[in-house]
Specification:
The chain is of the alpha+beta class. Helices cover 70% and strands 9% of the residues. It has 14 helices and seven strands.
């Protein structure tokens, strides 16, 4: 059980955790030690910093007092009171307790003398406006003497602290150097142990891998009769070796089975292609055979009415158009037709509808004649036009128009059918293009060749998903259905 758990992954993980733990603890120690040293350095010179600020403030106070006594300047007086408040705040940082330390005793003396100095200075400032010349001169002389003594005391204390702090700073530097040296030693020892462990681990890995690599080279050359490596090692290397041996054995069996299955697969593929062709042909013939009985009844009824109301020539023309239309629908057995034949079928279809509906459908064509002989799948335009009339123009209250165009654009021949009907929503367009069944209005069953069937046959014929594009700007803005025939197909048809 121990061997199974002590895998190379676990060994490498242990080495990593050992190294990481040592380095983490060392860094934690260094971080803590450096923070302590930085705090000590800050504390070392904070006394000197406070004494320097105290001295500067004391000089400013004396300067303001001298200026006011000489000029009675209000600005000098205001500056004095401001500096006095700052000086009192700085005095709070000095020692005020009874202690044995000489430096702290000197701090206490400076604090007491400073308070006395401020009292005398304020008396001098009060005596000046009262014209007590003798009084303010006496106070000013006392303040000057006390100021000189304070400056001397502050300088002496500052010098003493600086000497003491220099010794402390030297000790802190020694501590930093010692920390750096210990850190370097620990890093080198940890790195050396880490390298030794990795070398041992790599040697245990590479020896069986070298044997496996030599065997794999032979197998790569096609020699499946190599002497396989036997291994009882429970690590990942042992698992890989046993898997390789099984792979070689399975490869021998697979090659034999593959040889036997190739012929059977080829036969199945041929049958599948043949069946697909039969199925498409049957579907096309079935779709061509579908005729809308309701439409046939209405057209023949309209022909009978026309025979009663008009001369025989018009009746003949109408019936002739109907016959041409159904002749194409029923007798067209070819999978392909030309664009010209598709347009003629649309012409006949529009003519029949206009006879039924008193010419309410206005039909325009824009066709480049050199494109008429291009071959396309049979019955692709009439279902599109029928869809426009049934769903786009059926109940509109304005003039009904359909425009058919066949033009060359870049690398495509574009066959476009545009109506000015109610338009389509984005969801309806996506439903048709995704070949999802639409809900039929008024429970109408699907008759004739639907738009989805046309799209499916075009995609299959041209092997392209984007062969049909449906565009509608918005409600009551009409719809355009465009078929994009690749130019390569046109060249093949011309050949």
């Amino acid at each position: 059980m121990n061997k199974r758990r002590w895998t190379f992954q676990n060994q490498a993980l242990c080495i990593f955790l050992f190294t990481f733990s040592v380095l983490f603890l060392v860094n934690l120690y260094i971080y803590s030690n450096m923070n302590t040293i930085i705090e000590n350095v800050d504390k070392t010179y904070v006394g000197n910093k406070n004494l320097m600020e105290l001295r500067e403030n004391l000089d400013e106070i004396q300067s303001c007092v001298t200026e006011y006594l000489n000029t009675r300047s209000e600005d000098a007086l205001n500056q004095f009171y401001k500096r006095e408040e700052e000086y009192k705040e700085l005095l709070k940082t000095l020692n005020s307790d009874v202690v044995d330390s000489e430096n702290l005793i000197m701090e206490k003396n400076i604090r007491n003398m400073s308070e006395s100095y401020l009292i005398i200075v304020n008396r001098a400032l009060i005596a000046k406006p009262g014209r007590d010349i003798e009084g303010y001169m006496t106070y000013n002389e006392q303040a000057s003497e006390l100021f000189d003594y304070l400056v001397t005391c502050i300088n002496n204390l500052n010098s003493t602290l600086f000497r003491n702090n220099s010794d402390t700073y030297a000790q802190l530097l020694d501590s930093v150097h010692f920390t750096e040296m210990m850190y370097s030693i620990i890093l080198m020892v940890t790195g050396f142990l880490n390298v030794c462990l990795i070398i041992v681990l790599i040697r245990r890995m590479t020896k069986p891998l070298k044997e496996l690599a030599e065997t794999a080279k032979e197998v790569g050359k096609g020699n499946l009769e190599v002497q396989l490596i036997e291994s009882n090692n429970q690590t990942e290397i042992g698992i890989v070796i046993r898997a390789f041996n099984q792979m070689v054995r399975s490869l021998k069996e697979y090659i034999e089975k593959l040889r036997q299955s190739v012929e059977a697969e080829s036969a199945l593929r041929e049958n599948a292609i043949r069946m697909e062709a039969y199925l498409k042909d049957a579907q096309l013939k079935y779709l061509q055979a579908q005729i809308n009985p309701h439409f046939l009844f209405n057209t023949l009824n309209a022909g009978a009415q026309l025979a009663m109301l008009e001369d025989a020539d018009k009746t003949y023309r109408y019936i002739h158009k109907v016959a041409d239309f159904f002749r194409f629908m029923v007798k067209k057995n070819d999978a392909l037709s030309t664009i010209q034949e598709e347009i003629e079928l649309v012409d006949n279809y529009i003519y029949i509808l206009n006879v039924r509906y008193a010419g309410e459908i206005h039909y325009d064509k824009q066709v480049e004649k050199e494109l008429l002989n291009i071959s396309v799948p049979s019955m692709i335009l009439q279902p599109i036009v029928e869809n426009c009339i049934k769903h786009g123009l059926h109940d509109i209250g304005w003039e009904k128009r359909i425009k058919l165009s066949v033009v060359k654009e870049s690398d495509y021949v574009v066959v476009s059918v545009i109506d000015n009907g109610i338009g389509m929503t984005k969801k309806q367009i996506e439903t048709i293009l995704n070949n999802t069944e639409l809900e039929k209005p008024d429970g109408e069953a699907a008759r004739g060749i639907g738009l989805d069937n046309v799209i499916t046959r075009l995609r299959t014929f041209y092997n392209c998903e984007n062969v049909v594009e449906i565009t509608s700007v918005g409600k009551d803005m009409g719809t355009e259905v465009a078929i994009y025939i690749p130019a390569a197909q046109k060249e093949n048809d011309n050949v």
